[in-house]
Design brief:
376 residues; TIM Barrel; 8-stranded parallel barrel; 13 helices; 18% strand
Length: 376
């Protein structure tokens, strides 16, 4: 990345000429960013969001721990039915955990009121899911439940979350779901709760397919299966490309439940090369999957500390140019999402990974990303 740098600080575009939304919506459709509810509730930040994006992903408020809570609020099955919960036919426990939808309601109402679409992130994940959800009597100190009991819990959780969103006033706001997140890395930090119950299932995990099946069936029930897409989301997808294709082939065996791949794209200017990412994109294209870049950020110092913001701009230019070329070649790339509004609020803040240093403070990388659209 040190050679053949292109100067983007003096781009032919000025900051007021355009926005990410204007530049990219005609190319990929959805142009998104990860946000928090507090950011959506701040007027200046919200104006910044709506200027540059037409889609949002909640960074944390829709993950399993946010919906289930750190300790369970248990209600009887009969009380749950009275509240409108879906109880699976083979659910044999006397209680269910209440699902907390307050933040979901707030995010959806703010998105809808401001013309923003939303990617729902995420239903099934080995991280940020409370331990009690996997234990008998929903007690974190107890033993793990059986696979049959966990199957029913997965069905209960997935169906009730999807039903809540799509039976309400903001059904049209949600256009995509990350049904399962990072399954292929679910033991990177040690044995996960899921593996404790189901064992190692390789590229044929039953509970993953079940989660997609439940979500797909609910979307079909509401008559929106063609409009709302279901994704498998993961990081380092360029290292596990063949495994993802195998996994999605298993999920879709018999009936298609999973529409495509969410490629997180947490990158660094030193590695991987945009062309290497492009090889994975091409494989997913060849396999017939819809593709969304769901969590884009590019650090400048994760592997080496001598890179500059101009190197970062060059990398972003090559990355976006590659994606545009894949789209022009027929790739079903339907969205890009940057993982954070600006550097200091990024989960990788020390690497200065985003396109802005603050609200209305674009970096060279911003101009390079805009410049890349000239090739479309």
């Amino acid at each position: 990345m040190k050679e053949n740098k292109k100067e983007f600080v003096n781009s032919r575009f000025t900051y007021n000429d355009t926005s990410l939304r204007i530049a990219y919506s005609d190319i990929f459709g959805k142009v998104g960013v990860a946000v928090s509810i507090s950011q959506l509730q701040d007027t200046a930040t919200l104006n910044f969001i709506t200027k540059h994006y037409n889609s949002i992903t909640m960074e944390n408020e829709m993950k399993p721990d946010a919906l289930l809570g750190y300790s369970p609020a248990l209600i009887t099955v009969s009380a749950a039915r009275e509240k409108g919960y879906i109880i699976p036919a083979d659910y044999n426990e006397g209680y269910v955990p209440e699902i907390h939808f307050g933040n979901v309601d707030t995010a959806l109402s703010l998105a809808a009121a401001n013309g923003l679409s939303l990617r729902f992130h995420t239903l099934i994940w080995h991280n940020q899911t409370p331990a009690w959800f996997f234990k008998s009597d929903y007690n974190a100190g107890n033993n793990y439940v059986s696979t049959g009991t966990m199957d029913a819990r997965v069905e209960f959780f997935v169906k009730n979350v999807v039903a809540y969103v799509h039976s309400g006033n903001y059904s049209n706001t949600v256009y995509a779901w990350d049904v399962v997140n990072e399954y292929l890395h679910n033991t990177d930090g040690g044995t996960s709760h899921w593996t404790q119950i189901y064992g190692e299932q390789g590229n044929s995990p039953t509970y993953v397919k079940d989660a997609f099946r439940h979500a797909s069936e609910l979307l079909s029930y509401y008559g929106i299966r063609d409009r709302v897409k279901l994704f498998y989301n993961d990081y380092n997808t360029y290292l596990v490309t063949d495994d993802i294709i195998s996994l999605l082939s298993f999920i879709n065996s018999g009936i298609k439940y999973c529409d495509g791949v969410g490629m997180q794209a947490h990158l660094d200017v030193d590695w991987p090369a945009p062309s290497f990412v492009g090889e994975a994109v091409q494989k997913f294209m060849d396999a017939g999957f819809e593709i969304q870049l769901t969590e884009i950020d590019v650090t400048i110092n994760f592997r080496q500390d001598f890179y500059t913001l101009e190197d970062q701009a060059n990398y972003y230019y090559e990355l976006m140019s590659m994606l545009i070329s894949k789209k022009k070649a027929g790739g079903n790339i339907t969205g890009i999402t940057f993982w954070g509004l600006y550097d200091s609020v990024s989960w990788r803040a020390s690497g200065q990974p985003l396109l802005f240093t603050g609200i209305d403070q674009p970096k060279p990388a911003y101009y390079s990303v805009i410049e890349a659209t000239v090739s479309y």
